[in-house]
Structures are given as structure tokens and as C-alpha cells.
Write a structure and sequence with these properties.
Two copies of one chain form a homodimer. With about 240 residues, chain A is an alpha/beta fold. Chain A folds into two domains: about 110 residues, Tetrapyrrole methylase, N-terminal domain (Cobalt-precorrin-4 Transmethylase, domain 1, 3-Layer(aba) Sandwich), CATH 3.40.1010; about 120 residues, Methyltransferase, Cobalt-precorrin-4 Transmethylase, Domain 2, CATH 3.30.950.10. Chain A has eight helices and 13 strands. The longest helix of chain A has 13 residues. The N and C termini of chain A lie far apart (about 50 Å). Chains A and B meet through helix 1, helix 4, strand 5, helix 5 and strand 6 of A and helix 1, helix 4, strand 5, helix 5 and strand 6 of B. Strand 7 of chain A pairs antiparallel with strand 7 of chain B, so a sheet runs across the interface. Chains A, B: Its EC number is 2.1.1.131.
Chain lengths: ~240, ~240
């Protein structure tokens, strides 16, 4: 059967990829992805065909990949992080319904929640919620409801897409919702460019996070009521009882 | 400064490890972990020292690692999956407070939410909550509150530690809580032994999940209201609007 890999590249450089992800790229004749990610790996594979589209070109990108696979070539669609977390895996499955049967294999990667957490210390050791602040495909009212629910149930929280030029104040709005149920002293963290040039991690409080700047390369962490600042890191205990 | 790596091995075999994780093991003189994980990698490094403790020996394991690092040896503490998700990273930071200053570096890995999701298709494409059903260190009332909150806010949900011999009916209890706000037809998934011998993935409904068997090698997925069964897989759309 025709073969299509959906590959999570992890954060940043090749050292963050798994052996399985490297093997899938090696086996593929065509690599399809967002321009910036394709450019990261193009030099490594001079003999392969690359197909890239700009941001928001996800549907077109999937169709190009599915057509190449139906034409008999082994194809890899690449996502940064993990392709199954706000990545391309779902769209590939959905759009594949309109094509010949294709063997789709999702190769998991290290998602930004995990790579960012590692830079901060250990913020997501206990139950956590992952929420995107992008309202492009999701009504803001639902995002707000999820933030409020996660805040009240004392989840650790990881925010993807915390801001963009169009959504400059969304992180502040999210913090205001969390401040309904969480103290301003709650430990929080900001990670930029995990695994890439300009990588940075900063531990602050939820009150300070409300005033902080974020962009599309930022991942945001908010601790639960037990999360501590330890040796400059952000650390959540394994539970609510001593072991 | 003394160096201690906390390394996520990802699921199962070496192909699922990142290059950074392999490099950290390579550099370490002492590797510390739960017996079963240490046995997975022992053969590869005949020249290294291995220190292992049985299940629930986490505190002792961390102390052995910290003492070895304070003795001047480069040490890696290994966890399966990602060391920052119900893993050893937090405990290492907490216990390190009692020792000489140590440079702790967490090397992220592919956590079971991501490796399990990849086997099912794409269940966690949209906002999701990760909840452990183990009440060893967390009161059951809080776990129940989180399940209820995540259910009502239409999060996709991933359950770690869904059952053990002592907690044989916890998955059923969790399903009953989710069924307060979710239809029994909600798409769900069960993954066993991701990346290891006996790997299996099964798509079912929340109603069927209530009757299903799980053990400590199982990861459980419950879709949101939009999650579909597609070509045998479990797929959550990118949002609630068409792009």
C-alpha cells in the first residue's frame, strides 16, 4: 500500500529528533511541510524532493502530500514538536478520506509542553491541561471556559500559541481568567525558542505573566497550587501527600 | 559543576529515543533507574555502572543518583516516556536541595500521551487534559474533580495509570464521572505497550471503555465532542470551525 509518514521533528535541531523520525525521513522520497521547518532539514537530504507551503497553508500541504503518496512515492509530512498535538496528523487523516487507501503512520516527537518543561525544571510533573489561545478555529468563549475549568480544578497548565500580532492581549486575558481561581503568586514560566537559537526560559509569577510579552515562538506554563520555585527552576511535586 | 541528567527514554526501544537522550547516556558514567528500564539499556553500555531500585523506590533512586553526582561522577537518571510527566525530574530537583550544587539537565522524551496518540491516529490534536488515576499521592476527590472539570469543558483526555491490581475499578469510576457530561458514544481509545512487544491500540466508545480492562501498561484516551472514528483511527479535528 502507498505509505505516508506524519513525522514530529521535536523542538529545534536534529539532536531532538528520535531515531524513528530520522528513519522515516530517510525512507521518504518526498518531504512536505511548512517552509520554515522544511528549510531546517533540506540541506541534509539533497537528493529528496521538498514541497513547502507558508503558514496557514495546512490543507494545501496535506493535499500535496496525499497526491504524491497516491502517485506511488513514499512521503513524509513534517511538523515541529509532535504532529499529534496541534499538528498535521489529524488533518492528514481527515483529508485522506478523499483519496486511495494510504497507510498513514504517525511518528511521535517531543512536543513543546515537554521540551519547554525540561528547560524550566519540572512544571508538568502532575496532572496538566494543554490549551491553545488561537481562536482561528475555536470560539474564544470555549477557550475561556477551558481556562476557567483548568484553573479551578488546580491543573498545571501549558499554553500553546499564547499570542500573535493579531492577538496581542490574549495572554493577559487568559491570566485574568486564571486569576479568578489562582493566586497572583502562583509560579509560572515562559519558554522561547526551545531547542533553537535564542532559546530562553524564565520563571515568574502569574501576576507578572499578565504583564509579560509572548509571541508565536513562546510556550507558557502556569503551575498548580503546589508548584514551587526551586534553584531558579519551576517544580511541581508528584502529588499532594508526602510519599 | 557536578552534572546530573534526567533523561526521558520515550516509549519502548532505542529507536524512540532522541539523539540528545542517547548522547546524555553516552556521556554518563552511572545510570540510575527503575529495574525494568535499566534492564532495557544495560546491554548497550557494558562499561557503565548501573543502579536500580524496584517500583516505588523513587526517593531512594534519586538519593543514589545525587550521591553519585556529588561523588564527582556524571550521572543519568532515566525515566520511560518523558521524565517531566509523572516522571523523576521533579523529585530530583526537590531532593537536590539537600546536596552540593549540581547542574541538573532534563532531557525531554516522547511521553505516553504522544506515543499512544500516534498509534490511535490523532486523538489529541486539540486542547487536552492529562490525568493520572493513581491516588497514591493525590486524594481521589481531587482526581474526580479534575475528571469532571475536563469532561464538562470538552477537553480531549488522556489517562495515565488507569488501573492497577489494587485499583481494579478506577477506570470504570472515571468513565462514570465523564458520562455525566459526555455521551456514551464519545470516541475513546486504549493503547497497551506502546513501542514495546505486545503493542496494541483499540478504538472504542466511552460506554465500552467503562467495561474495558486496563493495567499499568495501558494509556487511555477519551475524545472531545468532535472526535471521530476515521479509517479505524481516532481523530480529533483542529477546531470547531471549518478552516
Amino acid at each position: 500500500m502507498k505509505k505516508l509518514y506524519v513525522v514530529g521533528l521535536g523542538p529545534g535541531d536534529e539532536q531532538n529528533m528520535t531515531g524513528r523520525a530520522l528513519a522515516a525521513l530517510e525512507e521518504s522520497e518526498v518531504i512536505v511541510g511548512y517552509t520554515a521547518y522544511v528549510d531546517l532539514i533540506r540541506a541534509r537530504y539533497p537528493e529528496k524532493a521538498f514541497l513547502a507551503t507558508a503558514m496557514r497553508g495546512e490543507v494545501e500541504r496535506c493535499r500535496m502530500a496525499l497526491e504524491a503518496a497516491c502517485g506511488g512515492r513514499t512521503v513524509a509530512v513534517v511538523s515541529s514538536g509532535d504532529a499529534g498535538v496541534y499538528g498535521m496528523a489529524g488533518l492528514v487523516y481527515e483529508l485522506a478520506q478523499g483519496y486511495d487507501p494510504i497507510d498513514i503512520e504517525v511518528v511521535p516527537g517531543v512536543t513543546a509542553a515537554c521540551s519547554g518543561a525540561a528547560l524550566l525544571g519540572a512544571p508538568l510533573i502532575h496532572d496538566f491541561a494543554v490549551i491553545s489561545l488561537s481562536d482561528l478555529l475555536t470560539p474564544w468563549e470555549l477557550i475561556e471556559r477551558r481556562l476557567d475549568a483548568a484553573g479551578r480544578a488546580d491543573f498545571c497548565i501549558c499554553l500553546y500559541n499564547p499570542a500573535s500580532r493579531r492577538r496581542a492581549d490574549y495572554l493577559r486575558r487568559a491570566c485574568d481568567i486564571l486569576l479568578r481561581s489562582r493566586a497572583p503568586e502562583t509560579v509560572a514560566g515562559l519558554v522561547r525558542n526551545a531547542g533553537r537559537a535564542g532559546e530562553s526560559a524564565r520563571v515568574l509569577t502569574l501576576g507578572e505573566l499578565r504583564e509579560a510579552q509572548a509571541d508565536m515562538f513562546t510556550t507558557v506554563f502556569i503551575g498548580n497550587s503546589q508548584t514551587k520555585k526551586l534553584s531558579g527552576g519551576m517544580v511541581t511535586p508528584r502529588g499532594y501527600r508526602d510519599a
